[in-house]
Amino acid sequence: MKFLAIIPARKGSKAIKDKNIKSFNKKPLIYWTIKAAVKSNCFDKIIVSTDSKKIQKYSKSMKVECPFLRIKKLSGDKSLVHDAILNVLNYYKKKNYFPDVVVLLQPTSPLRDINDIQKSCKLFKKLKPDSLVTITKVPHNFNPENLYLIKKNFLTNFNDKDKILKHRQNYKSFYARNGASIYMTSIKKIHKYILGGKIAYHIMQSLKSIDINNIDDFKLAEIIQKKFKYNL
Length: 232
Prior knowledge:
Elements: E1 3-8, E2 23-24, E3 27-28, H1 29-40, E4 45-49, H2 53-61, H3 81-93, E5 101-104, H4 114-127, E6 131-137, E7 148-151, E8 154-157, E9 175-177, E10 183-186, E11 199-203, H5 215-228
Parallel strand pairs: 1-4, 1-5, 6-11
Antiparallel strand pairs: 2-3, 5-10, 6-9, 6-10, 7-8
Helix pairs in contact: 1-4
């Protein structure tokens, strides 16, 4: 089974300028995702999809492929990463390269490590799902049973039922996609969706699941990495 890793890394970012190559614990942010992908030894190919010559040059220096620059249409704030993936697949189709599984690794999840990638690939091989995603357990205070809506000056129960306070251990367990750590999709389904059909999962630790969207996330992720040595 051939796994193709795609790392999407636009140059544009409103919240953090040049986010994907901003220094994160003394290395460009994208370095941590490329490093984990390479060292996992899971991938037949690792591709960086970017519209930046600087990111392209850096990616090639790390011995991964970045054969072309994205067109403007695929590089805007509202551009879909799914379209960027299909763009990569169309390029390699012309080169007669056909993977079995497409793996999306966002560079904004620098704490994802080799172990998470290897376990996800192993699960995909074993279960042969349509797609796979990494998840984390929803904290008890965000459990759907604890959610409220604000209507005028008062809180109303999200589920329209009067609340009976329970012990935490009696709550059902809920899980959420953890930012953008790992997405895997069968090549047979990738033209329809990135995540859908029969979905497998790999549970990640919540601290490793941080997805960097703003400068606070960036600083927090740096602290967590230094403290717990994730992906170092």
